[in-house]
Amino acid sequence: MELRQLSYFVAVCEELSFSRAAQRCFISQSAISHQIARLEHDLGVQLFERSTRSVVPTDATTRLLPLAKQMLSLESAIRAAVRSSGPRIRLAANMSFATRSLSAIAGAREAHPGAEIEFVIKPFRQRIAAVADGDCDLALIRGRVDQPGLTVEKLWVEDLVIAVSTAHPLAGRDDVTLTELGNYPLLLPPEQEQVLLHNVVRRAFADLPAPPTYGPPIPPDHTATMELINRPDAWTILYADTPAEGIAGLRLSGRPLRVPVSAVLRSDLRPSPILTTLLAALHSA
């Protein structure tokens, strides 16, 4: 039994899907299925009842899950305990924050030449857990998180991007309204995977006569931009303006769609000059 197998096991338990768990862990679905099968063989029990439509935990899974989470938490605590005592900061984020984060890191290193600042790529839940366990000093997230022992500091507000295929009827317009967009299918990931985006849409359409027309959810192993190519009548909302062949961004008339970007830190974290400088740089980057 390996710690990585327990990590994959927890991901499958929380996602109830091998494909979503694989995406979350940045490995292939066949690889995560193989590792879960090895874990089941090592333990001598079946952990999931699999079908083409669902993944159902067994009674053994219910007993194992809290222990697996405890083991993974201990691993993070061990890494934090033996970490070098020198000036070092670990920033957890995803790649959509890379440009702004690396600019802030460069500024903080210039102010503190001896500092080591790591940019660690982690999915949302793992970012929060890494800060809570002490494995990372801060994490960047969109929206908020309410968890005992953690503090959320708002850094900036980010404009969301309305994206369509260049073949869309509205492509090429100087600006569009939500009412106009509401006539076309909106493609988003399932709500359980992107609660924040769905909340933004609900708030934006709350005062309009009709809600948006939703198309089929974007599968976990597909990208929003590729779905637009396949559905040139549809539109979507992106967190970052990432140009792609065949995709056009639209300017929204009136109030833009926005989300807050925040830093998550432990409430008991002792202030350090490096961390203070890095946060200031993130505020102004």
From TrEMBL:
PROSITE patterns for this protein: HTH_LYSR (PS50931)
Domain HTH lysR-type: 1-58
Keywords, sorted A to Z: Activator, DNA-binding, Transcription, Transcription regulation
Family to which this protein belongs: Belongs to the LysR transcriptional regulatory family.
Entry GO terms, CC: protein-DNA complex
Coiled coil spans: none
Pfam family, one: HTH_1
Protein's name according to its UniProt entry: HTH lysR-type domain-containing protein
SUPFAM superfamilies named in the record: Periplasmic binding protein-like II (SSF53850), Winged helix' DNA-binding domain (SSF46785)
Molecular function in Gene Ontology: DNA binding; DNA-binding transcription factor activity
Gene3D superfamilies, per the entry: 3.40.190.290, Winged helix-like DNA-binding domain superfamily/Winged helix DNA-binding domain (1.10.10.10)
Source organism of this protein record: Nocardia wallacei
